[in-house]
């Protein structure tokens, strides 16, 4: 994972509530075996409408998206995060996120910043004409005005993002602990191992 | 000293924590990993690039489901038909190559056991009570119906599980959804879960694991429990579960991947302990009166947009929240519905009976019971029944259900995810409506511009017969 510390720039004021992952990237784009190139399909149904915020010239290449409640609900498809990255989005601000999406965002170095609705409303207003800054280190969102909105972030995720850590690499270092767990499990719940053997014996 | 009373979720969670970090993040062991073709190719590719192996191929099972056409897969001479869509074919070929390359058990597209991953897991006895089960698919929540802690994961997590058989997670909050009383005749598990989502809202369960409690669930079949837990994610909860009991044990006994003999007895002993202790605390509790629930349908583009079949399309004005008012107005525009329209007047041109929510034998029986001796309305252009697995299909055929469907004007298809998300050729045309037993009514879910009404299999059958959304109770006992 690449290091992430601070993101500054224009923010697309989408504002919509319950933006589901089918809206972020429709299913017909999921037939790929790659993580690349999904930006073309990102927010396809929204972008078909004339005057949609994604295609306003000012927001070309904007790194931040501002949305409503429950962003990323629905499917577990990580293609949603890949599609957003591919169109240049590296942060989303919303009052709440679905659990699976916020995990997928984090794994791809996308900041999912939760702020109360009234602060999101203020940012939606500011974003029309001005840039926004998200400072992960200090956990604060600022505008060119006096706004300073503090946000919460999972300490482990913050640590991984700031240091660009690879979770799988970290877990592989815990191999001894995993082996200990597996041995204890094999003693107490032995039927959990090798279910494929049961299948062969049933046959 | 007596230990602190725990919920079912806490018991399963505690049994799987490998390590707890100081910041509260836990390394959690995963007992069962189901893999399908859509969310796995990038994970296998990353393993390959990093020179990593699959830690426990014996705990991993792969089956294709999303892309497969549901039309016949073999020619009359028995030869295998190619898949016309090149991208779908490539994705399916990737799984077919990756599974053996990494030593993973693979059920291929032509095996009688092939089906939707969430139908196959319990049906094969691969999914077991008290286990942690993951899959790169949000409807993994379904397996909670047999008393497993089961949830969907993204592709990076698929890769993490393949490489380490663990995930880094924080414990969820616990929510109890307690249903009191009994369901009325004609009201099914699908109506129940649609009603529950209408009550808690599509984000109501975010951050929670739901435990469904009450006599309704104790009396419910395994198929019904899988339907209820399946849609937990539509209420925002990554997982939903129901305490395993004799109904579950009887369902699992003798299934191919399930333990046998002495191991089975030991397993059942442990499974019996998997209940929420008296006095255990939930972080949130929702109580539902079963008597309030009627056959339920969706009217909008979020699974929380539901109403009893006797109701009407709501007006945006009745919603207090301004953002919701705007969302409802947009939904109604997309759905082509005017506020105040009685749901029973909504005409449908397409019927889809299938998906990981409602494609098991009971679902097909419920629909067939309504369709028996009847025909679909002439205005219904397309009606398909898609069994959840080859074994469900075979059993349905043994019971003669396929004939009931085809006599009624339905197409009887091969198993797969099909028109639930329209990744394969099964799509609802733009602007047309579909009465669908699937789980999501999102914009474009069943095809660009398609309009979805979620309902139960019996209700879908009723809509097929009349050509409009219909209270199935009017067709029962006639």
UniProtKB/TrEMBL annotation, chain A:
GO molecular function, one term: 3-isopropylmalate dehydratase activity
EC number: 4.2.1.33
Subunit structure: Heterodimer of LeuC and LeuD.
Stretch forming the signal peptide: none
Protein name per Swiss-Prot or TrEMBL: 3-isopropylmalate dehydratase small subunit
Catalytic activity: (2R,3S)-3-isopropylmalate = (2S)-2-isopropylmalate
Gene that specifies this protein: leuD
Lineage: Bacteria, Pseudomonadati, Pseudomonadota, Alphaproteobacteria, Sphingomonadales
Family indicated by similarity: Belongs to the LeuD family. LeuD type 1 subfamily.
Pfam families referenced in this protein's UniProt entry, alphabetically: Aconitase_C (PF00694)
Pathway linked to the protein: Amino-acid biosynthesis; L-leucine biosynthesis; L-leucine from 3-methyl-2-oxobutanoate: step 2/4
Key words of the record: Amino-acid biosynthesis, Branched-chain amino acid biosynthesis, Leucine biosynthesis, Lyase
InterPro entries: 3-IsopropMal_deHydase_ssu, Aconitase/3IPM_dehydase_swvl, AconitaseA/IPMdHydase_ssu_swvl, IPMI_Swivel, LeuD
Purpose: Catalyzes the isomerization between 2-isopropylmalate and 3-isopropylmalate, via the formation of 2-isopropylmaleate.
Domain Aconitase A/isopropylmalate dehydratase small subunit swivel as annotated: residue spans: 1-118
Automatic annotation (TrEMBL), chain B:
Enzyme Commission (EC) number: 4.2.1.33
Binding positions for [4Fe-4S] cluster per the UniProt entry: 356, 417, 420
Keyword line: 4Fe-4S, Amino-acid biosynthesis, Branched-chain amino acid biosynthesis, Iron, Iron-sulfur, Leucine biosynthesis, Lyase, Metal-binding
UniProt cross-references to InterPro entries, sorted A to Z: 3-IsopropMal_deHydase_lsu, Acnase/IPM_dHydase_lsu_aba_1/3, Acoase/IPM_deHydtase_lsu_aba, Aconitase_4Fe-4S_BS, Aconitase_4Fe-4S_dom, IPM_dehydratase_rel_enz, IPMI_cat
UniProt KW DNA-binding keyword: no
Alphabetical list of Pfam families matching this protein: Aconitase
Cofactor(s) listed: [4Fe-4S] cluster
Catalytic activity: (2R,3S)-3-isopropylmalate = (2S)-2-isopropylmalate
TM regions (residue ranges): none
Any one Gene Ontology molecular-function term assigned to this protein's record: 3-isopropylmalate dehydratase activity
Pathway in which the depicted protein is active: Amino-acid biosynthesis; L-leucine biosynthesis; L-leucine from 3-methyl-2-oxobutanoate: step 2/4
Bound cofactor: record note: Binds 1 [4Fe-4S] cluster per subunit.
Gene3D superfamilies in alphabetical order: Aconitase, domain 3
Signal peptide residues on this chain, from the entry's feature table: none
CDD domains reported for this sequence: IPMI
Similarity comment: family membership: Belongs to the aconitase/IPM isomerase family. LeuC type 1 subfamily.
Subunit structure, as described in the record: Heterodimer of LeuC and LeuD.
Role: Catalyzes the isomerization between 2-isopropylmalate and 3-isopropylmalate, via the formation of 2-isopropylmaleate.
HAMAP family in UniProt: LeuC_type1
Protein name: 3-isopropylmalate dehydratase large subunit
Lineage, highest ranks first: Bacteria, Pseudomonadati, Pseudomonadota, Alphaproteobacteria, Sphingomonadales
Chain's gene name: leuC
